[in-house]
Amino acid sequence: MYSLVCIECGKENDEMKYKCICDGLLEVRFDLSRLEIDFKLDGRDLKVWKYRSLLPVKSEPVTLKEGGTPLYRLERLEKELEIRRIYVKHEGLNPSGSFKDRGMTVGITKALELKKTAVACASTGNTSASMAMYAAKSGLKAFVLLPAGKVAIGKVAQALMHGAEVIGIKGNFDDALRIVREVCERAGIYLLNSVNPFRLEGQKTIAYEIVDEIGTPDAVILPVGNAGNISAVFKGFKEFKKLQLIDRVPKMIGIQAKGAAPIYRAFKEGESKITPVTNPETIATAIRIGNPVNARKALRAIHDSKGLVEVVSDHEIISAQRKLAKNGIGVEPASASSVAGLIKLIRNGEIERDSTIVCIATGNLLKDPETVIRVCGEPKMVEADVEKIMSFVTQIS
Ligand code: F0G
Fold first, then answer.
1. What's the whole-model pTM score?
2. Which ligand 1 atom is the nearest neighbour of the CA of 122?
3. Which of 20, 235, 255, 305 could pair with 6 in a Cys bridge, judged by C-beta atoms 3.0 to 4.6 Å apart?
């Protein structure tokens, strides 16, 4: 019912591969004409495995009940920015606190199908937290490579507590990914970075859930790091269109941090390949990536959907994080870049007022408490005395 196809040369590959002999990225392709869809788009019971007939697994899934994340409408922001509809899909409310769980439930299930006993990834944090959690659930051994000192503390804590072997390297994410790819190849360990096409299959359910709940929006805005998620979400919309469940796809809008923006540069220069950034830097450590492996897929998704790429500064990211927090939505910095991008694009006149926009908030506020404390400051200290507290409270209110 599905095959693993190279996006460059079209050659079919076997399930154990992460890239084609021509070096091209692989993608799962379903024979959609022969597929039996057994779900209804009724906005109910949203979760990754509702769409099982479009997920490439043969066995019982390893699941922690991922997906079904809330889609919040931000009426106040709509008024402020004069846009018809703005939604935020809060992927930070997945089991490990990020969208990665959608990919891991499929990736780990595939690891078991392939009789693997160990899994590994390089990570800016969320992938490692999620992989450690699902590996723990399934009894697989987990190895994690992190850029030392550059991963938010909540994510490291998760990987450690769920029992992964956590290795810090003196290098950035791109170095870690290069190394872990070779180690996995040599040691027969299953690689669960987004170069693994099965993981992206799980992540495409973000698109399915959006359609299930509100139909097709005009644009979906999401942060771009290693560029897997934007590719996955577009694939989801495209599949629904091919199945005639929707009649159009939304514009895919990718947001990068200014100091780590190779896809933005390639997009602006009309290139289909990126020039890597050697020393990526941003407060949004989750997307501190200079050489995104899925760049080719992402640039195609942006091009085919008539979308675009924008960059935002660290200052814009933090101010969007605060804005979301004031609307009751707690996210980590990288996640806020989607809303920071939306604000910038509206100011530049690149979003039509009559649009319905969905921003993806990719990870939870609790992931990166250190940045929060740096930005918000420490809590005030007042003596444990009712009168002192009373005078403090009355001064403020
Ligand atoms: N937002 C968050 C919170 C992330 O953790 C990531 C990626 C992204 C956005 C970007 O997604 O890579 O598919 O373009 N984090 C990876 C990790 C790299 O290791 O956790 P992408």
1. 0.97
2. 19
3. 20
